[in-house]
Each structure stands twice: as structure tokens, then as C-alpha cells.
Specification:
Structural class: alpha+beta
Number of strands: 21
Shape: elongated
Number of helices: 12
Strand content: 15-25%
Helix content: 25-40%
Distance between the termini: 50 Å
């Protein structure tokens, strides 16, 4: 590679970095390595570039406990999954000595693996930075010193850390972290299964020219208290709803699942959105964790081109007309579920639309920001929707998330439904 920009030769700069660096693609194939990396591994550039890492540095067959190669690949996979750097503990990873008759050399490494992200936030490349700690480990093992035993530092005479002890403790820590990762992976799988069971299939969406996007908050095990639903009522009519339970994580998701199921049933038998939300309000009063849940429901009639809606404290749906004019459907907004001491009937409103219009339902995570008026977020959504109104629902949904900063992670749950009317 060679690129000169602003008078800087970045290829020469990379090659001159004294820290050993290599660059691998998503399949763990070497695409670049600097001079320090070549020297520390004893390899020529032609022996690396275009080759798979395990082929260049295979595991030592004479060492039954050789887990360094496996650990390194596991770290690479974590980088691909999370898009974040992964710092590894001290690893033993023996490598073949250069030359036809060379055997395996015992080597100890301290690796850090860092993602290179594309514009869409996906991982394009992985930068592998290594420090060779072999000489230090061998020196510590060959010249052990008595430990002072003071505190928890395991300090040797003169303040030097006993590397053998450090390595042993590092291995214990790594094994403990691996057990935690496996436990987290199982918990994550359970959470995904739960979320999948709670949310509707995409059959009504495909029939009604609609798209959905579901983004749990970062660190929430990919489950959340936001939900959406869409059901067909007849050939010319269908209903759509979006809701938001207070809180996040498994507890909020559990409440969400119960409320979504109750509203889904009510949507099929109630005479309009207001009656459906009235029934949901009655149910929410008997459900722990449902207090102050917000929800909005619309009935869409494609024959009369009308939208009938009611909201229980939820942010108003947004309707974008073919000419780019946007309006908020805010004429039938009432308090959240179970917020009154006694249940009461809900308001309902009706409006017309022109074919070719776009309807958007969403939860507050899409538009709310700390230290910013909600009106700013709604204006941002309105401008983005008007700008992309000529696209299909899938493309509109993707652009709305991008324009509102959702692709860089979100501190709150987000549910988004886009319907091309």
C-alpha cells in the first residue's frame, strides 16, 4: 500500500512505526505488516501478505496445551462482533523458526487487536499490535527471586514483578473471563430467543409495504421494552401499534411481551384504537411494571384513505405527504397506561391521507437527546423523512436511523415502523 496525502507518505509512516503491527482482513488474512512485525516474527513480507494467519503461524503440534493460536482467533472474532478493541493477556504462542529445518521457538506475546471501521460502522480490517515478552519471561524463569509477600502485588526483590507468577495469574484470569464470556453468550442467546418470540412475524409488513427497525440500547443484551405490532383486519384495513415500557433489559422485555400480546388481541376485536387502548389500560393495572407505559395505535383503511388513531402518552406518529409536508398526528393524545386512579375512555381522531404518503411510528429513543428539546429531535425526523420520502420503506428506515445517529449506538431503546401508504 502507498498513499501520499498532504505531503505525508502513510505507507512509509506505517512501516517506520517501531511497534510491531500487522493488518488482517475479516477472514484473518494478512493484508499488510510493518518492518518491526517482520523482524520480530522472522518473516519476509512475501511470506505473510495474502496468507491466512493460522497457515503462517500454525500451532505447535508438540505442545498439547498450545492455546495461544485459538485465543488469538477468538480475540479477532470478538473484535468483529463488537467493533471494539480487544486487549489480550500475556499469551504463549510458539512460532516456527525461519529456515527449512527450523523447529518451534517458545515465544510469549502481549497482543492488542483493534478494528478499522467503515462508514457504516462495520469492521473492515483488524490491526494486530504485539509486544514480544519472551526474553523477559525467560529471564524471570531462569533467575527466580524470593517474593516479599507484601500485599497483593507479588513483588520480587528490587520491585521487579515475578513474571512467572504474573503469567500464571494471567492464565487464571483469562480462563475465568472465558467462562464469563460463555455464560454471557448463553444469556444472550436466551434473550434473543425471548425477544424473537415476543415480536410479530414480518408477513403483515411485507403485504402492507412496511419496514421495521428494532435497536435495543447498548449493553441491554439485545432485548428491550419497546415493541411494535401490525395485523391485517381485512383486505382494505390493517392496524399498527408501537409501545414503550419504562425501563430496559429482560424485566422490561417481559412486561412488553405481555402488553403487546394483550394489545394484539384487543386490536382484533375492539371497535377502533381508542377502545383497544382502553382495554389495554385495564389490563396494565393488574401487571407489575406496566405503570406509565406509552402506546399508540392506528387503524389504516386503504379504501377510504383514512387513518384512525389514539395515543396513550406516546409520541405522535408522523405523516409525510407526497409533496414533502409533514404533520404530527397529535389530536388524540391521552395519559400513559394506568396513570389515572380510575380507567376512563380514550380519545380518538381520524385524518385522511393521499396515496404515496409515508407514515412513521417510533419510540422516544429515536428523537430524544439529553440537554435538547424534544422539538429539535422531531424537527430532525421531519426533515429526514421529507428528504427521503421518495424511497421505499426499507430505504427510508435505514436513512432515518443514519440521519438521527442511531447507527453509532444508542443509549435508549428504539423501535421504528415505516409504512408507505
Amino acid at each position: 500500500m502507498s498513499e501520499v496525502s498532504g505531503g505525508i507518505d502513510y505507507a512509509a509512516l506505517f512501516d517506520a512505526v517501531p511497534t510491531p503491527l500487522s493488518v488482517l482482513d475479516r477472514d484473518f488474512v494478512f493484508v499488510e505488516a510493518n518492518q518491526a512485525y517482520l523482524e520480530i516474527t522472522g518473516r519476509a513480507r512475501g511470506e505473510l501478505i495474502g496468507r491466512h494467519l493460522p497457515d503462517v503461524f500454525p500451532a505447535n503440534p508438540d505442545d498439547p496445551n498450545a492455546d495461544g493460536p485459538r485465543n488469538l482467533l477468538a480475540s479477532f472474532r470478538r473484535v468483529l462482533e463488537t467493533g471494539k478493541p480487544d486487549t489480550m493477556i500475556l499469551q504463549r504462542y510458539d512460532i516456527l523458526s525461519p529456515g527449512a529445518e527450523g523447529g518451534y521457538e517458545e515465544r510469549y506475546w502481549s497482543p492488542v487487536n483493534t478494528p478499522v471501521l467503515g462508514e457504516d460502522g462495520s469492521v473492515l480490517l483488524i490491526v494486530n499490535r504485539v509486544e514480544d515478552a519472551t526474553a523477559y519471561v525467560r529471564d524471570s524463569l531462569a533467575h527466580p527471586t524470593s517474593l516479599t509477600g507484601a500485599g497483593d502485588g507479588l513483588l520480587a526483590a528490587g520491585g521487579k514483578v515475578a513474571e512467572a507468577e504474573l503469567y500464571a495469574r494471567a492464565r487464571e484470569l483469562y480462563e475465568h473471563n472465558e467462562r464469563l464470556r460463555r455464560a454471557h453468550a448463553r444469556e444472550h442467546e436466551v434473550a434473543l430467543t425471548l425477544q424473537k418470540a415476543m415480536l410479530p412475524t414480518h408477513m403483515p409488513l411485507e403485504r402492507r409495504n412496511a419496514a421495521v427497525r428494532y435497536r435495543p440500547a447498548q449493553g441491554s443484551l439485545n432485548v428491550c421494552g419497546d415493541w411494535y405490532d401490525m395485523i391485517n383486519l381485512s383486505e382494505d384495513r390493517f392496524a399498527v401499534a408501537v409501545g414503550d415500557v419504562v425501563g430496559r433489559g429482560l424485566e422490561a422485555a417481559s412486561v412488553m411481551g405481555q402488553l403487546r400480546s394483550a394489545l394484539s388481541a384487543a386490536m382484533r376485536v375492539a371497535d377502533g384504537p381508542a377502545q383497544a387502548l382502553y382495554g389495554l389500560d385495564l389490563y396494565a393495572r393488574s401487571l407489575d411494571g406496566a405503570l406509565a407505559t406509552t402506546a399508540v395505535k392506528l387503524d389504516i383503511d386503504t379504501h377510504t384513505h383514512t387513518l384512525t388513531y389514539s395515543s396513550a402518552g406516546h409520541l405522535p406518529p408522523m405523516l409525510c405527504h407526497p409533496d414533502g409536508f409533514t404533520e404530527l398526528l397529535d389530536q388524540a393524545t391521552d395519559v400513559p397506561l394506568a396513570a389515572r386512579s380510575r380507567p376512563s375512555h380514550r380519545p380518538q381522531a381520524i385524518t385522511t391521507y393521499v396515496p404515496g404518503s409515508t407514515l412513521v411510528l417510533y419510540t422516544d429513543g429515536l428523537v430524544e437527546r439529553r440537554e435538547e428539546s424534544i422539538d429539535v429531535g422531531l424537527k430532525r425526523l421531519s426533515e429526514s423523512l421529507a428528504r427521503h420520502r421518495g424511497l421505499g420503506p426499507e430505504e427510508i428506515a435505514d436513512n432515518l436511523l443514519e440521519d438521527l445517529g442511531m447507527n453509532r449506538g444508542t443509549a435508549d431503546d428504539v423501535a421504528l415502523v415505516v409504512i408507505k401508504l
